[in-house]
From TrEMBL:
GO terms for molecular function: lysozyme activity. Residues 1-19 form the signal peptide. Its EC number is 3.2.1.17. Belongs to the glycosyl hydrolase 22 family. InterPro entries: Glyco_hydro_22, Lysozyme-like_dom_sf. Keywords: Antimicrobial, Bacteriolytic enzyme, Disulfide bond, Signal. PROSITE patterns: GLYCOSYL_HYDROL_F22_2 (PS51348). This is lysozyme.
Amino acid sequence: MKLLVAFLLAVLGCSLSEGRIVTKCELRDQLVRETANLTDSQKVLTGSNFPAPAPPQPNNTWKLYGLFQLGDKVACNGTSPSANICGTSCSDLLNDDVTDDINCLLKIVTNPPLGLIFQNECKDKQDASYFADCP
């Protein structure tokens, strides 16, 4: 629960992104359209660094892209060798269309070896409490 509160505070307090700010409720609506199960969608959010829409930032060896700050070594094709699980260019994750970001994140968390990374972090998360303030 504290993690979710921290996410909400970050959404309200962070205005350093180059793209538009996507609210939690807007994202919920988009996730519902893109996925059949809202509980899984919320777990996807928890497993990602949402909300963190920002330009790519170097962190020694990785550059992070898009709404969910997906790494160029795994998610997309950037300037360095990548597994490119999402089959997309990293620059495609920087636009205002969150559909490709959501689809990419879903590919990562539903990939058996990669999905295990999020297992402990997400297993007890409930969408009802996370999205409770959304109409």
